[in-house]
Design a protein that fits this description.
The chain has helices at 21-38, 43-59, 61-72, 76-101, 134-145, 159-171, 189-194, 207-219, 242-254, 274-286, 306-321, 351-354, 370-378, 393-400, 435-440; strands at residues 2-5, 12-16, 104-105, 112-119, 122-126, 149-153, 179-181, 198-204, 223-227, 232-236, 264-270, 325-328, 341-344, 361-367, 385-389, 407-410, 429-430, 443-450. The protein has 452 residues and is an alpha/beta fold.
Length: 452
């Protein structure tokens, strides 16, 4: 059963039955027929539909933003920004897809030789609830432009978002079967991955889910991309602008109420400025306004589900039992509410440092020098993003080479953006979304050589 429940009020709006095996088979058959048609459509025509999609998104921005608020608790300002970002992505790929997918001549001595990028077929996307539109668009737009069709298995707590997404593509002129929503339970995921129509799978989610899906993809020899968790380091060096760093630290930790894979989670601060930074961070946290996510003045609202808040509470309480100190906040949740909190970390083996805290909790630790800061930043099984805050840009650029992460940003918070490839290393997954890398992930990179 897929349930649309408001996490702030706990009101249940609607429930939906999941597809059975026969219904899934029919969807897969439809995807196969749609792919045979879609792959022959010119790139120019695909781009035109993507442009219409962007226009429709912006025209109904408020409708989609309120839906996101009601279904997973994101505050309204951030929900609007999510829709705007989806439109931006469409516009970016509309402008660049032709260049990214063009044949690349290669000098081999033959009469003609080149690399071409051809579609694979149907791509199954297993998507999370925390950015219910953006995460889908991030994989779907380049995948569709490359000539593939999309099957969406969305998170069970955002079923109306999933339904609206399919409607959105149909209303933009995409024929039936090119983008389909699959309301399937976990037991049918393997059947979908194993099916010959599905040629690839991409997942954004937890490390646990990634291991399970990657194993299935490997078992059935399907191309896969895994965008998993993160425990991003936010490194503040001794010469940093403390006010600027602390202000951005609050934003980086509290985006989507802390429920973001690239939210900064571990704040590693040079010892000489540690207490100044900690005090400024605390001040910024205390300024945040709690309220209904639909109210304009709200800065944070709730976590998306009760079980998520309970798990975060467990992690915080376990961390405090082993020597870490609660500087601000509360270790216990009240249903989906969790107060923004700061933990001063002394025990590196505790959940506050070695696990991903998916909620509004900042773990702060001091470092004696830059070498130690880098060591602490890399002391994690994850490798998604990291940021460095310093006035010495040359030094910062040198340090980026030593950070084990898919993205490193200097003097700005880590974020995904259409122009840059996005993804991680280690337990943060593999493969890349966005930019030129994202549109080529689900293509057959074919070599062509012709002799007279």
């Amino acid at each position: 059963m897929f349930e649309s429940r408001n996490p702030f009020t706990q009101e249940v709006y609607e429930s939906f039955s999941s597809l059975d095996s026969k219904e899934l088979e029919a969807k897969l058959h439809k995807a196969d027929i749609a792919y045979r048609y879609w792959r022959e459509i010119s790139l120019e025509k695909r781009i035109e539909k993507i442009k219409v999609l962007a226009e429709n998104l912006l025209q109904r921005k408020e409708h989609y933003a309120q839906l996101i608020c009601r279904e997973m608790g994101k505050i309204i300002r951030e929900a609007r920004a999510e829709i705007e970002k989806c439109a931006w992505l469409c516009e970016y790929y509309a402008e660049n897809a032709e260049k990214f997918l063009a044949n690349e001549p290669v000098s081999t001595g033959a009469y003609k030789s080149y690399i071409t990028y051809e579609p694979l077929g149907a791509v199954l996307g297993i998507m999370p609830w925390n950015f219910p539109f953006w995460q889908v668009f991030r994989f779907a737009i380049p995948t569709l432009l490359a000539g593939n069709v999309v099957l969406l298995k969305h998170a069970p707590n955002v079923p109306v978002c999933a339904i609206e997404l399919e409607k959105l593509f149909l209303q933009a002129g995409f024929e039936e079967g090119i983008f389909q929503n699959l309301m399937i339970e976990t037991d049918l995921v393997e059947k979908a991955i194993a099916h010959p129509v599905v040629q690839a799978v991409t997942l954004t989610g937890s490390e646990k889910a990634g291991r399970a899906v990657a194993s299935l993809a490997g078992k059935h020899l399907k191309k896969s991309v895994m965008e998993l968790g993160g425990s991003d380091a936010f490194i503040v060096l001794a010469d940093a602008d403390i006010e600027l760093a602390a202000r951005n630290a609050c934003v980086a930790r509290m985006i989507n109420n802390g429920q973001s894979c690239i939210a900064a989670k571990r704040f590693i601060v040079a010892k000489p400025i540690f207490h100044q930074f900690l005090e400024k961070l605390k001040e910024n946290f205390q300024k945040l306004r709690h309220g209904n996510p639909l109210e304009e003045q709200t800065d944070y609202a709730c976590l998306a589900r009760v079980d998520l808040a309970e798990n975060l509470s467990r992690q915080v309480q376990e961390s405090l039992k082993v020597g870490n100190k609660l500087i601000l906040g509360n270790a216990k949740n009240q249903e989906t509410f969790f107060e923004p909190s700061i933990i001063e970390v002394w025990n590196y083996d505790s959940p506050a440092f070695c696990e991903e805290l998916f909620g509004p909790v900042a773990s702060v630790v001091w470092a004696n020098d830059e070498k130690t800061a880098i060591q602490l930043a890399n002391m994690t099984s994850y490798g998604l993003g990291a940021s460095i805050w310093t006035k010495d840009l040359e030094k910062a650029e040198h340090l980026t080479k030593h950070l084990q992460a898919g993205s490193v940003f200097v003097n700005t918070i880590v974020k995904s953006m259409p122009q840059l490839p996005f993804g991680g290393i280690k337990n943060s997954g593999y493969g890349r979304e966005l930019s030129v890398a994202g549109i080529r992930e689900f293509t057959n990179i074919k070599s062509v050589l012709i002799e007279k």
